């Protein structure tokens, strides 16, 4: 009975690795293309405008590398590939959290500035 449970778990793991390998590559390539286009278009507006594109390109690269490692694990069970998968995915999560925190910070800053503008409009009965 233990043999069936182990083979079922292995089948589920293989299916998950297959999904990561396929959709990770597709998503990674799509993000790298989108990030490259966004970065180039951002350069025409302002140098800082290329930063979101560069970050998207880098995140796409991390997803692609995670997918490549998943394919290597699926095909041969390489322990180094498992280490690469965890490293790339962990780095992806770190960059995602940093971007989330920056987004929340900018949103709070904009709400505060908007509130100050509205409050000052009420205090001084309009603008001069």
Rg computed from alpha carbons, rounded to a whole number of angstroms: 23 Å
How many structural domains does the protein architecture include?
1
- Which structural class matches the secondary elements? mainly alpha
In percent terms, what proportion of residues is strand? under 5%
What's the helix count? 3
Keywords: Membrane, Transmembrane, Transmembrane helix
Protein name: DUF5362 domain-containing protein
InterPro entries: DUF5362
Pfam family, one: DUF5362
Report on the architecture of this protein:
By secondary structure, the protein is mainly α. The protein has one domain. It has three helices and no strands. Helix 2 runs antiparallel to helix 3. The longest helix has 45 residues. It is elongated. The mean pLDDT is 88. Keywords: Membrane, Transmembrane, Transmembrane helix. Pfam families: DUF5362 (PF17319). This is DUF5362 domain-containing protein.
Short description:
It comes from Bhargavaea cecembensis DSE10. The protein has 128 residues and is mainly alpha-helical. It has helices at 2-45, 51-76, 79-123.
List keywords for this structure.
single chain, 128 residues, mainly alpha, 3 helices, 0% strand, elongated, transmembrane
Layout of helices and strands:
Elements: H1 2-45, H2 51-76, H3 79-123
